[in-house]
Amino acid sequence: MVLVWLLAIPLIGSFVVLFSGDRAAKGVAVGFGLIEIIAFVVLLAHGPADINVPWIPEWGVRFHLGADGLSLFLIGLTAVMTVMALFASSKTYRRSYFFWILFLEFGMAGVFESLDLMLFYVFWEVILIPIFFLLTGYSGSRGRPAAMKWLIMNLVGSLFMLIGIVAVAVLHTQPFGALTFEISQLTHVPMSAAVAPWVFASFFLAFAIKAPLWPFHGWMPDAYSDAPAPVTSLLAGVMSKAGIYGFLRIMLPIFMPQMRQYQTGLLIFAAIGLLYGAFMALRQKDMKMASAYASLSHMGMMALGVFSLTEAGILGATFLMVAHGLIIGGLFVVLGFAEERTKTREIGAMGGLNDDAPRLAAYFLFFALAALGLPGLPGFVGEYLIIQGLVAHDVVFAVIAGIVLIVAAWYMIRLFQGVMQSVRKGPRILDLTAMQVGYIGTLALLVLLLGVWPAGITSHAAPTLYHAVHLLATKGGASS
Amino acid sequence: MSATSTMLPEYVILGTLLIAMLGIMVSRAHSTLPSWIGLLGTIGGLWATADLWSRHLKPVLLFNQSLSVDNYSLFVDFLVMIAAGSTILLGWQGEREHDEFPVLVLLSALGMMTLGMSANLITLFLGVEILSLPLYILAASHRDPLGGEAGLKYFLLGAFSSGILLFGLALIYGATGSMTFTDFATAVSSNSPILAAGLMLALVGILFKLAIVPFHMWVPDVYEGSPDAVTSFMAFGTKVGAAVILLRFLAYGFYLSPDAWGPLLGYLALLTMIVGNLVALTQTNLKRLFGYSGIGHAGFLLIGVAVHSVVGARAMLFYLLPYGLAVIGAFAIITMISNGEKNVTIHDLEGLAHKKPWAAALFIVFMLSFAGIPLTGGFIGKFYLLQAALFAHQPGLAVGLVVGTFLGLGAYLRPLQAMFRHESNEQALAGWNVNWAQIVVLVVAVVGTIGLGVYPTPVVHMVNQSANFFWLH
Question: What share of chain B is helix, strand, coil (3-state, %, to 5)?
Fold first, then answer.
């Protein structure tokens, strides 16, 4: 039942916000966000959960929700980052803004909970709408075209995935009779060589655009840089994980033979994205843009972990999803603080904020170090596991990932130096308020906890992933 | 229960029609009495339909096999009642000075219901004509140049297509010697050239009513020139009538020779989906935009016919409902803005989100349903059509559906983004006017749209019982 409440709380909350006044909107929204976290704690205490009732029985569509080692912490990530974003949002925004944020939480929680393909698709597309309106109504000058780009690119992906979903279900009826959309039952769909690549591509495209992976990141730069900072932190921190999650949840079980077949190509793909993101991050003049490309590079890292098709790599990707969500989300919130105070995003126009705002600088440094993968912080754990997996598969990609870690240190330090150190250029600014320290500090503590105690996640995730990797052996033949 | 009492919904509408006509005679000019009678009549018709549905009757053939009353025709009755009732409500204020408005709407609805039951050539043609003639008058009922153009264009082209249809029906009769649909397939001369020519001509006539490319030229001008309420009736009701007769005509009469028409309809569906939605992208007048996107939706409907399967028939029948609900909802907002006086363009929507946030929110719901975004009925409809296309091994139709959806979304986004523009022009919402009738339509439309998206099971179940063409595979 907790699973349903995790969906119901943000949904009810969003409508309560809509019916409350503009002044009360933020308070009400934060309240519902906190209740959602309590619901998640209850879920955590109870352990794995599952709800399975018929939705459209004529088509075999079921309302099947579940939380296992793979999705449990992503649901938590959604709850935590939504509260962070709500706290960081300006009080002056109207209620429709808070409505859309909570509605987005509803959609993202749904994506991570769904175990039925049709249900998954419903939530997958529900996500598009709040982000479109947040970009249209509340972002900077380039927000409107960014919103269009976001919607059009993502819809191309997801509409073709819809064909893929129906095609998989129809193919399943040919030997098995009944129509079903259960992911666990679709793992044995026989696909002819003529059909398989198309169906595979339809899913791959949707997930790669959502993540985004190079070269499907066309919507990303404008959307990340022009959206309000809290929205960017949700986009980069939580929403982008839906793409990688799709690879793990849907493509590994259903398309394992194809994944094996195209493995080298997929790895090259991800590696190019990894390098491209890192080097683009190095030469950005806009601090949000630099972080956006850093995030693109990290998505490439996670994709490498998944495509290594080894236990360590997949476990690393799973862990890094949660860790990166907290870190990059926190980083964008901190960047939002800096932008709010200096009214600019140009690295060249900032500098020396350290003098006026030491607390801001400290949190900036913390999240920057976490993002570049400092040992002791969770980014390192995930990247270590991924590289371990890559070494097991093909050492070349491990070397590339290692090189990118060095570049990551470079672009993150450059960003920190540019914004916080060097010579002061603008007028004096205020440091973080106690309130802001309160929530960003909590997030930093969470990151620290994850860094020193990664087993909190990996011990939960490993059994689930063991199942996925077990499929590797049975479906894809022996490991090469 | 006697055979003719299964036609109770039709008799209710016929009776209402006559009473409403008497009502016009006894009431003062421009009174709401005829509208009240018409509205109560459609509610009575809905009740009669629901009553018949709940009895689970066996299909009956009436009047020498010319009308077939079954779940299929009852489902059509439901759809037509919703269309007619909402049209009367939308015209409550704007069409007040045209006392005959509810009468003509009900007469046209009677034609649609006849098409739902029709099982032979005579009732087919009668249904098409009863549907069309009142609409010709309604289209021209506003005596401005645009309305005149709309009426005349609709009448001339409609009469022309009726002629083609009639010629086709005559050839079919000549080739098979029978009027009844079910006799065609087994007729001795089932592959004669005369029968093929008759089929093609009859199809042209019906596809014209459904506004399939390349027989769609009349749609934009007629939609633009007609009063708003009438346009919503054309967009919903006419599509229902034409689509259901096309399906029954082919599924009953030509199920043994699907190769003669299936591929043709498939290609027309592709063409219609792409062209309709593509041209919709360039429109600024909202009624023209819905006209072209309606053409695109007709292409989606045609998928269900072209695949020639039970799933296809059910998918098409299902799709009519979310489409129609979104149409009446969107037109309710349009009538609020236009107040029956001006032609609403995208620019008239500017600033709507800030001045009338609730209307804007509802408009978003209807646009998303048109575009087929989940949690709205439009998505479930598209999902059903995709199943139909893929079960029939027609990935081309599936891709066409997706591309058409995608283009359509682009068209719907422009009004949406206009609503959020801050710099609204002064005259944008000058004529804003809301009455209770429009609110009733809005509530029905939004509850139906979201309800179908969240829990479609009851309607899916109904549709499965309706389009039970078991002899198709």
Answer: 75, 0, 20
Q: What is the pLDDT of residue B349?
A: 81
- What residues of chain A have any CB closer than 8 angstroms to a CB in chain B? 55-59, 96, 118, 121-123, 125-126, 128-129, 133, 136-137, 144, 147-148, 151-152, 155-156, 159-160, 162-163, 166-167, 169-170, 179, 198
Report the distance separating Cα A216 and Cα A125, nearest Å.
Answer: 18
Nearest to A160 among B380, B402, B464 (CB): B402
Size of interface A-B (CB pairs under 8 A): 73
Q: Does B436 touch chain A (CB under 8 A)?
A: no
CB contact under 8 A, B353 and A129: no
For residue B22, give how far its alpha carbon lies from the nearest alpha carbon of chain A (Å). Answer: 47
Residues of A whose CB is below 8 A from B460: 56, 58-59
Instruction: Test B390 with A148 for CB contact under 8 angstroms.
Output: no
B463: nearest CA partner in chain A: A58
> Cα(B454)–Cα(B247) distance, rounded to whole angstroms?
28
> Measured between CB atoms, does B405 come within 8 Å of chain A?
yes
**Long-range contact list for A174-182, CB < 8 A, 24+ apart?**
A178/A60, A179/A59, A179/A60, A179/B387, A180/A60, A180/A62, A181/A59, A181/A60, A181/A61, A181/A62, A181/A116, A181/A117, A181/A118, A181/A119, A182/A60, A182/A62, A182/A64, A182/A115, A182/A116, A182/A117
- Residue that is written with structure tokens 């440091």 in the block: A431
B281 in helix, strand or coil? coil
For an interface test with A, the pick among B307, B368, B376, B387 (most A C-beta atoms closer than 10 Å) comes out as B387
Q: Work out the pLDDT band at B428, boundaries 50, 70, 90.
A: low
pLDDT digits (tens, 9 = 90+) for B189-221: 556 888 889 999 999 999 999 999 888 888 888
Using CA atoms, how far apart are residues B146 and B140, in angstroms rounded to an integer?
A: 8
Q: Quick one: CA dihedral A5, A8, A10, A12, positive or negative?
A: negative
Instruction: Compute how many other C-beta atoms are within 10 angstroms of the C-beta atom of residue B122.
Output: 17
CA distance B81 to B110: 10
Amino acid at B90: L
Helix (H, G, I), strand (E, B) or coil at A52: strand
Is A166 within 8 Å of B457 when comparing Cβ atoms? Answer: no
Tell how far CA B137 is from the center of its chain.
Answer: 18
Mean pLDDT of all residues in B48-52: 90
Task: Answer yes or no: are the C-beta atoms of B151 and B139 closer than 8 Å.
Answer: yes
What are the contacts of A182-186 at 24+ separation with CB within 8 A?
A182/A60, A182/A62, A182/A64, A182/A115, A182/A116, A182/A117, A183/A115, A183/A116, A183/A117, A183/A120, A183/A249, A183/A250, A183/A253, A183/A254, A184/A115, A184/A253, A186/A117, A186/A253, A186/A254
Contact A401, A324 (CB under 8 A): no
Nearest CB among A56, A122, A179 relative to B374 is that of: A122
Judge contact between B348 and B428, C-beta under 8 A: yes
Q: What is the C-alpha separation between A132 and A152, in angstroms, rounded?
A: 10
Q: Which residues of A touch B370 (CB under 8 A)?
A: none
What ipTM does the predicted assembly reach? 0.88
Distance CA A480, CA A267 (A): 15
Nearest CA to A165 out of A193, A123, A132 is that of A123
pTM of the model: 0.91
Q: Mean pLDDT by 10-residue block, N- to C-terminus, for chain A (480 residues)?
A: 90 90 86 92 85 88 87 91 90 86 94 92 91 83 83 89 91 83 83 87 92 87 87 91 91 86 91 92 88 91 90 88 92 89 82 82 90 87 90 89 90 86 78 87 90 82 68 45
Of B357, B390, B405, the CB nearest to A170: B390
